[in-house]
Amino acid sequence: MKNNRIIHRLLAFIIDLFIVIVIIIISGVAFSLASIESENMPLIMILVMYLSFCSKDMFKGQSIGKRVLNIRVANMQSGKNATFFQCFIRNLTVLIWPIEVFMILRNPERRLGDYVVGTKIEYIEKRVGFYLSTVKTRMNPSSIPFNRAYAFCIDLVLVLILCFPFFAFILAVWPGDTSELKAVSQIALLLSLFIFGLLMLRDCPNGQSPGKRVVGLRVVITETRQIPSISRLMLRNLPIVLIPIDFILVQLQFLHRTKIQRVGDRIADTDVILEKDFLLGK
């Protein structure tokens, strides 16, 4: 139970981190389009990121990540949703994240910020669950789309993190003025290809991306239940550009209680199963 709650909080944090990174990117693009230049721009971006983190739980004690994972910040005494002021002060301690991580590993319900403002983390029980939760379901948990979505979110955040040094490298070696429209378009194309390549290779070589490893999933060949070859794993991830179609397809299959396969799985003849089932040879 304790490990499951730690993983819940980790996944919620990763989702929130992804959203904050998107906010930073949008802010940077907005400043660029407005031709706002300043020597303190990196400091401004860090401040925007910090304030975004501090404000993330402002709606009824839930950030987007916590809402997805059915977690909320509650007042320790009354049990009601924490106030905006409590959530904001609680998140100020994100600057000393190593200490916060250590405290969460010891007690998933309270970290240093919670002790400061008198709050705790509550895990909300809901009918719809996934295999990390305590909710029992007759379906094979690996067929429920939520945990696959969480795995993809983890992978996407890691890919975006890797984009920063790659982007810095491009700017450092780029010949000419990077502010010209043609240069911006070419750099954007290179970044897109870099992201696409990482997403294609994320399940190589053993059928587990970092996200799938955290959530406990693995890609296998449908008939043999063996680990696919690298070429088959790349073929499976080739239609990654069809994410909207994949999302709709997975939801329809889930609602009709049929075997869930996205477009790439159908092309490469693969399935996503629980890691424990793979180890047991199921």
Keywords:
single chain; mainly alpha; flat; 4 strands
The helix-and-strand class reads mainly alpha
Tell me the strand percentage band. 5-15%
Calculate Rg over CA atoms: 21 Å
Which descriptor suits the 3D outline?
flat
Low-confidence stretches: 126-143
Fraction in helix: 55-70%
What can you tell me about this protein's structure?
The protein has 282 residues and is mainly alpha-helical. Helix content is 58%, strand content 7%. The strands form two sheets. The chain has a two-stranded antiparallel sheet with strand order 1-2. Strands 3-4 form a two-stranded antiparallel sheet. α1 (2-33) packs antiparallel against α2 (41-54), α1 crosses α7 and α7 crosses α8. Residues 126-143 have low confidence and may be disordered.
Topology:
Elements: H1 2-33, H2 41-54, H3 64-68, E1 71-75, H4 84-91, H5 97-106, H6 112-117, E2 119-123, H7 145-173, H8 181-201, H9 210-215, E3 217-221, H10 230-237, H11 243-255, H12 263-268, E4 270-274, H13 275-279
Antiparallel strand pairs: 1-2, 3-4
